[in-house]
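Project outcomes to date are best conveyed with an example. Our students and postdoctoral researchers have been running inverse folding experiments weekly, and each run begins with a structure described purely in tokens. The record below, which covers 186 residues, was selected by the lab manager from last quarter's runs and is presented without edits.
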């Protein structure tokens, strides 16, 4: 069996400012850097051989901090299918302001499974690309191999649904605690 450790990037400046990040490039805050280093400390004894990151800087910076200084010679793959949800027209906007301006639409856009925000992706659309990623990479993992995946809040949702066999409602409802690591054996 292979063992997979999945984690969300550390806190970003957009997270701190309650901004819909989506595909925006936003980096880690000092707190986010410490969260990533803390995950690295927890994972320092795992003999990781390969790791996956999205094409967004927050995923890459987090993975770099998780790996250093304990893990060298790890094969790193960048895959855009595990990046954050595209928030479309909401990208770069303040969540609190959108909630106040359009309370009837905020929850629908923010947590609905199959209703995307204007010009963006629904969670269902994110799930489709994440499942494509999992179906491609999981068969390549060797017995006793350890793999890290540095993902995002909304790409973690379908990963957890896949491994934990949870419902769509459960998947859409939970928040991801910064610094929390999910581990699975396949």
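After processing, the design step wrote out the following sequence:
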């Amino acid at each position: 069996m292979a063992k997979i450790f999945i984690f969300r990037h550390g806190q970003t400046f957009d997270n701190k400012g309650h901004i819909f990040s989506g595909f925006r490039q936003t980096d880690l805050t000092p707190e986010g850097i410490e969260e990533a280093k803390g995950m690295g400390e927890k994972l320092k004894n795992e003999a990781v051989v390969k790791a996956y990151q999205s094409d967004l800087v927050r995923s890459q910076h987090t993975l770099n901090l998780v790996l250093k200084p304990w893990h060298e010679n790890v094969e790193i793959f960048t895959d855009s299918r595990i990046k954050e949800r595209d928030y479309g027209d909401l990208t770069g906007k303040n969540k609190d302001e959108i909630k106040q301006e359009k309370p009837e639409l905020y929850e629908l856009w923010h947590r609905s499974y199959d209703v995307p925000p204007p010009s963006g992706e629904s969670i269902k659309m994110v799930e489709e690309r994440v499942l494509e990623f999992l179906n491609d990479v999981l068969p390549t993992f060797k017995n006793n191999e350890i793999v890290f995946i540095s993902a995002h809040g909304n790409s973690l949702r379908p990963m957890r649904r896949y491994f934990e066999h949870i419902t769509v409602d459960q998947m859409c409802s939970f928040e991801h605690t910064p610094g929390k690591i999910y581990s699975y054996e396949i």
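The first strand starts at residue 3 and ends at 8. The radius of gyration is 16 Å. The training component of this project remains on track.
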